[in-house]
Amino acid sequence: RRAQFNFIADVVESTSKAVVFIEIVDHKRLDFFSGVPRMQANGSGFIIKEDGLILTNAHVVMSKRDSAVNVKMPDGTTYAGVVEDIDMQWDLATIRIRPNVPLPVLKLGDTATLRVGEWVAAMGCPLSLSNTITAGVVSSVQRTSRDLKLYGKDMQYIQTDAAITFGNSGGPLINLDGEVIGINAMKLTTGISFAIPIEYAKEFLRKAEDKRKGILILDGPKRYMGITMLSLTPQIIGDLRARKKSVPNELTHGVFVWKVVVGSPAHNGGLMPGDIITSINGEPVAGASTIYQLMESSVPVLEMEVYRNGMKMKFTVTPESSI
Length: 323
Prior knowledge:
By secondary structure, this protein is α+β, with helices and mostly antiparallel strands. The chain folds into 3 domains: 2-96, Trypsin-like serine proteases (Thrombin, subunit H, Beta Barrel), CATH 2.40.10; 107-204, Beta Barrel (Thrombin, subunit H); 223-321, PDZ domain (Pdz3 Domain), CATH 2.30.42.10. Helix content is 17%, strand content 41%. The protein is built from 7 helices and 21 strands. It has helices at 2-5, 7-15, 58-61, 198-212, 234-243, 265-269, 288-296, and strands at 19-30, 37-49, 53-56, 67-72, 78-87, 92-96, 107-108, 119-124, 132-144, 156-160, 172-174, 179-189, 192-197, 223-224, 227-231, 255-260, 276-280, 283-284, 302-308, 311-317, 320-321. A 6-stranded antiparallel beta barrel has the order 1-2-3-6-5-4. It has a 6-stranded antiparallel β-barrel with strand order 8-9-10-13-12-11. It is globular. The N and C termini lie far apart (51 Å). One of its GO terms (molecular function) is serine-type endopeptidase activity. Its EC number is 3.4.21.108.
């Protein structure tokens, strides 16, 4: 019976060798005892070309200019990586490494036939632990950007109850055929996680190839705050309130801060994971699009009103130039 029902194990066995651990180290922040650069951020990625092209989330690699990228393979081999292309609004990035041998790759699938209730596996390497897997079902395949109030981002999201942790964001969301159908993005709370459909990655890769051919592509924001966020809709607020008693009744809008990069402007300004940003410079934050517009503007300082554990607080964040 084990052989009959171990369908997740079969998928993992056939795909895990192409999933990698990514760490960002800051050469200006050295460990007091060892003197080596401190880890600034980490996440996962997966190999899509055997010559060393890796796909991941932009929020995994967004960092200060003095940072370096290290990529660790499942067998322990470590390569220096270079961020080749990045799209902050779609939260996608590619990293290039230079291997001596052809690498295993994952096949990119599609979500055209993806159904609610279908089994999926979220793969990643949290804390450099290879082959870390969570499994679950697809909760929604029509979680549109408009539903999430990301009006500046024409996107849809796959919602799943497979746990997506800090470490396996950027890793693949895989169907039972072993195909990548999404890129793990974030977890709102237990049982509510989101992945970026693979179609956006395919379009991102096409645009990146056009850039190399000399075709003009307008880039996204050039400033960097250092957070991963999710817009709060009434449905998501209700789901969050059902699981967290600290969510205030008067909360009707804002963005949920899922991750804060150590040493980033947001971290230096005092923001923490779990914060809910409701206004900036006296204006309400309707969703993540508000943040992206500010990153594209020249507004130097962001005065934020934030809910933390049910209490309203204020923080000041000064964005910096991104890589």
